[in-house]
Amino acid sequence: MRDKLTRMSNQYVLCKGWIDGWWDIDEITKRFCIKKPIIKKPDKNLLFENQELVSKEDHLNLYLKKEDEYKFMSCFEKLDPIYFSGIIKGYTRSDGSKDYGIHPIEQSQIHFKLGLVIDQLKEVDSNYKNPYTKEFLYYLEFIRKPKVLGILKELEDVGDLLPTFFHTHKEYKRSLESELIVCQTDIKYLRQISSSRRSRRSRKITYDFAKEIPTFEEFTEQQKQVNQLQETTK
Question: What predicted TM-score, i.e. pTM, was given to this entire model?
Fold first, then answer.
């Protein structure tokens, strides 16, 4: 009897193990048998290796929707190591015995998204070869800045469910806040150049294009007021 897993039933955990095999359960779900899983209690302030140990098991089943496979692994082979997280759920086998499986939830994938966004932010779109343009200012205000703010909010919302296999909450937050500072600094610098006749002349900018682009905050506030007005006139 796996007493430790019984006590952890319906709780969220982080795990590391090795793929032993996989099978289609139905058209939607695939079951992975994970050998020697190490199961730990999540703590967003600690890396997985430093978290409280819940249990070490002989095997554990991981259930993935087929559409989500690529989010957890691009390819897989037997004995590949795998990091995963989700809810421990018990079930009864056909012979009446009890077993347990891990069922990922939406928050189980947030660290993949964080990693992808951070990587994307490190590379300014190659289409913007000239940084002194209206198009680049628009990109900074309405693509780059909202992306950083959005993923920062997701990081805070996920709370203690954050998988910390590779980075802690503090490390993710520091990296994203650094990207936000860089973005805001670039916006400020570009607006200053656009508003200065001398700076425009030296960079062959024909007019103050920054006047045509509101800040992201101004645009958001305008949209909020429009929505409120629409609600009051219904």
Answer: 0.86
